[in-house]
Amino acid sequence: MKVKNRKEYRRLKIKRRIRKKSFGLIERPRMSVYRSNKQIYVQLIDDQNGRTLVAASSREEEIASQKVTKIEQAALVGKLVASKAKEAGIEEVIFDRNGYLYHGRVKSLADAAREGGLKF
């Protein structure tokens, strides 16, 4: 595995450790978060069949058009993924922070998804 720097290597080690324990099913999919410098993405994944059930990101039109901070943007994405999950009939998920620390944008997204009705 080729890694650019120590920070990314550390995140990937944490990610592997988390993924050993979490496995998404249709009844309870894995909610995977990816955070780049400017955007935040989230997917609800059924690992058993290898399918993405629901996806949301800060690049979607209703979120991208608003002028808000990145933490507020993550909260909007959390609410959006919760509403899409409700439409798909998903109520419980397994949260996969993907090696990122649970604070800032990741925490904001998780809290907003919980407020939207997802249980994890």
Secondary-structure element string: HEEEHHEH
Domain count: the total is 1
Estimate the helix proportion, in percent.
40-55%
CATH topology: Nucleotidyltransferase, domain 5
- The neighbouring-strand order within the major sheet is 3-2-1-4
- Average pLDDT, rounded to a whole number, is 93
Terminal-residue CA separation: 31 Å
List segments where confidence is low: pLDDT < 50 over at least 5 consecutive residues: none
Radius of gyration: 14 Å
β-strand amount: 15-25%
Give me the secondary-structure category.
alpha+beta
At the first level of CATH, what is the class?
A: Alpha Beta
Count of runs of 4 or more consecutive helical residues:
4
Question: How would you describe this protein?
Answer:
- By secondary structure, the chain is of the alpha+beta class.
- It is built from four helices and four strands; from the N terminus they run H-E-E-E-H-H-E-H.
- The protein has helices spanning about 5-20, 60-65, 70-85, 105-115, and strands at about 30-35, 40-45, 50-55, 95.
- The longest helix is centred in the middle third of the chain and has 18 residues, at about 70-85.
- The model has no long low-confidence stretch (mean pLDDT about 95).
Keywords:
about 120 residues, alpha+beta, 4-stranded mixed β-sheet, 4 strands, Nucleotidyltransferase, domain 5, 4 helices
SSE arrangement:
Elements lengths: L5 H16 L8 E6 L4 E7 L4 E7 L3 H4 L5 H18 L6 E3 L8 H11 L5
Parallel strand pairs: 1-4
Antiparallel strand pairs: 1-2, 2-3
